[in-house]
Amino acid sequence: MNFFRNLFVLTFATLMMNVSYAQDCTSYVGGFSANTHDGATYVNIESYPHENSGNWNISNLSATISFDDGTSVVAGRDPNNGNNAQWYFALSPSQLAQADQNNYTITLSSDNCSDYTLTGSFWTDCDGTYDGSNNDSCKGCMTASDCAYDSSATVHDDSMCSGESAGSCEQCSSTTTTSGGSCTDVAGWTDNEAGFDWDCTDYENSSTNYCSYTASGGDYGMSAYDACCYCGGGNTSGGTTTTTWSVVDANGGDTDGDGVCDDNEVSGCTTVGDCAYDSTATDDDGSCSNLSAGACESCSLTTTTCEDPNTVWTWQITSSYSTTVDCANFDAEPEYCNSSSMLANYNGTWDTDCCACN
């Protein structure tokens, strides 16, 4: 069965021309159509009589066709079409992704004959109808790394990409604003948590802008910022909606640029070979021992613990007034550990007894 008779053919324009040429020269080119077969989309024309080559230029996509059997899945000629020849050309994914009007110029040529040219246009559509009736619904940014990536889009529209992409320890953030259109306050809303029990009209008619005093616990869990047009909220209809994308820190960002987010940093000794080396550490905290085991040596760790005594030292300033200190005082202010005057006044021994002083 003829290859093209198995295709679902939707004809956009048919050009019938009868021009006198020498015998065997092209006298008709027309029947332009676009159709889909086995998942590929083709454009087709007919010519009479059979020709053996063709030069195609379709929206900056061109090829020279010269096949004997016309079996190429990309482009070719089907010679088994009665007295006519069927020419076909597969549209590339990038061209189909345009979802827009495409202009074409098709020139058929053969030896000792004048060129025969057919021009026109056709549409590529979101739903495959090729008539321009639906060229918006499937558009979106299909660049996976872009902040505005739309996983539901089937047709790429570069103008819908943000040009922003999040790296390590970053995330995409969007702000949507609507300009123009009309705004209506949320019906029945009152700010019953702000101490005013106001509605949106009260905010708008006040001589002082009290929007900044609104609480989040008003009716419907809304503040005036959410419910009132005067305060930047309310319900907006119509207008132009614009989404602006930016890249912000995630997980604390990466202050030192080491590829580990600040919230995930682990402090420790990062010097390989040091006795105190911590293989899980990502930030060196100065805890390295500056010791390393050589040949016939190994690292040995001795851990000591310190426990403060319950001693309380008293300074009897007068017969009726005195003050006391204990080890907890020196935890907060270790600079007084070796104060000779304090040691004398309190008859203290904290300089040797308290952990903070040793």
Structure in words:
- There is one protein chain.
- With 358 residues, the protein is mainly beta.
- It is 9% helix and 32% strand.
- The chain has 6 helices and 21 strands.
- It has helices at 93-96, 200-205, 224-227, 327-332, 340-346, 350-353; strands spanning 8-13, 28-37, 40-48, 54-58, 61-65, 75-81, 84-90, 101-108, 116-123, 139-140, 155-156, 170-179, 182-184, 190-191, 198-199, 235-237, 240-249, 267-268, 283-284, 312-316, 322-326.
- The strands form 8 sheets. Strands 1-2-3-7-6 form a 5-stranded antiparallel sheet, with no helix packed on it. The protein has a 4-stranded antiparallel sheet with strand order 5-4-8-9, with no helix packed on it.
- The radius of gyration is 41 Å and the shape is elongated.
- The N and C termini lie far apart (98 Å).
Give short descriptive properties of this protein.
five-stranded antiparallel sheet; four-stranded antiparallel sheet; 358 residues; mainly beta; disordered N terminus
